[in-house]
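User: structure tokens for this one?
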Amino acid sequence: MKPTETDLAPGLLIALPKMQDDNFAESVVLLIEHGSDGAMGLIINRPADGPELTDVARSHHLLLDESITDLSIYQGGFVEAERGFLLHNSREIPDSIPVMPGVYLASTVESLDRILTKTNGANFKLCLGYAGWSTGQLEREIGEGLWLPAPATTKCVFDRDIGHSWENALRAAGIEPGLLLKSTGRQ
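Assistant:
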């Protein structure tokens, strides 16, 4: 069965062991858009090399709520790597669009300011850049066994257990990672 727009987005793409591109090995992508023109998503389990949230806040003259303890920024992808995308779970953040129930996307400094100063326990991830696929590219990669499409959950999207988020996403999709790895011949 060929995936259709409603089959994939919003949803997760979990990189399978056959993925040879180090940029995507063991990555979990929240697929935000998928259609006849291609696809767009954010890698949600790879901390970015470089600045922390405090650095970004300082560079934009924003305050940072002291209740925020995880200062990680994520490498959302390699397209427009300097552009920020804010995934969050607060309906109160301006300029946000719903991605799925309990997950919103924003990309303005005003939205970042609101989440950093008035989090009130909101979950969020700031991602730099995005992952993009041209027309038919993602479908080919799925057909080649590089990606496992899976339903997205807020638990997977906001998982902060980065060392285990790939395995957690596979388990949420009903796949035991150890069995998957053995079946591909990788140890």
